[in-house]
Design brief:
2 copies of one chain form a homodimer. Chain A is α/β, with parallel strands linked by helices and 192 residues long. Chain A is built from 5 helices and 11 strands. In chain A, 30% of the residues lie in helices and 34% in strands. The radius of gyration of chain A is 16 Å and the shape is globular.
Chain lengths: 192, 192
């Protein structure tokens, strides 16, 4: 998606440790018009899949999920990263390792929001190693829900998450795939 | 807002400890069409305030903030509840006590996203004691940003947050104010 690649080139910042900061528009400050274009593109790609729910994980995934769900006219459900007193005991749980925060955490989703009648589009802002995504897929499996597709804004193509998901047969679309981040701060995108 | 009150009556669940569960449409599963109506209403109310940014706090506030920002055509910025390695050291910080999680936590916002030139509309899904809101107001004060208004989906009118903010002179709008939650599970809304 040209619009997203261009924005990453203009405002993304490469930091040591293969960190790509896109907090100006994707995960701290949010450019809602850009997110709307991302949602529209996911709809164009997956509109014939019979999607019943958009699934994501808090926090920044929620923004993309909402803008996507507007086009599909289906609800969003988002997995939570901490168990709140307000949640029922009736939850699906999966363990995820975060490289950003350097620890394991549980993700939870109330059972009543996902079941065998659902076909979900999973969306998120980033895909790198794929730990959070594997947690969401595990929850879909526990729920008996079908996965109609996976939509990612930015994939780090030099990390193994995307390749593993494609090899496993998922219909994964990453709107921008960064194949290389150079020491001078420049980026190389995978042609697609 | 009649539409929201009706939905709370139909799908909200009253639980011991003054908990109102609205996870079917507001903060776990998200009814994006309802959120869009909420965003449209905030725009109607605050469109002449010269709002430059919609400010909220992760996680469920993000959904309402995005739908609101679409109408205002301004960016969302959301405060984070944990300090990530990805954040610059250059952040505003405030301490918030969560009654839901029973602990204190820091909220942070990168300094570059809020400054004296900004006039913000703060939005969130719930207002009860007002601890999270006071944290966001503290960050606005640190940034020198003006607060053009506060938009809340559901206010617990029997808790002190709303009254304190109105007494302090903020232009606060809560689209549904629950004044009483009864043992039989029924609710009483404040007429407005």
């Amino acid at each position: 998606m040209e619009l997203l690649e261009q924005r990453i080139r203009e405002q993304g910042q490469v930091r040591p440790g293969n960190i790509l900061k896109v907090d100006c528009f994707l995960n701290h400050q949010l450019d809602v018009e850009l997110l709307d274009e991302i949602g529209k593109e996911f709809y164009r790609l997956y509109k014939d899949e019979g999607i019943t729910k958009i699934l994501t994980i808090e926090a920044s995934g929620i923004a993309i999920a909402c803008m996507t769900a507007r086009y599909f006219r289906v609800p969003v459900v988002f997995a939570k990263k901490a168990k709140s007193k307000n949640l029922d005991g009736e939850v699906f749980t999966s363990v995820v390792h975060s490289y950003t925060y350097g620890r394991d955490y549980d993700i939870t989703l109330a059972r009543k929001f996902l079941g065998p009648g659902d076909k979900v589009l999973i969306v998120d802002d980033f895909l790198a190693v794929g730990k959070a995504m594997n947690g969401l897929l595990d929850i879909c499996k526990q729920a008996g829900a079908q996965v109609g597709g996976i939509g990612i804004a930015i994939e780090k193509g030099f990390q193994p998450g995307g390749a593993a998901l494609r090899a496993a047969g998922y219909r994964l679309t990453s709107l921008a795939i960064v194949d290389r981040m150079n020491d001078d701060g420049t980026l190389e995108f995978r042609p697609q």
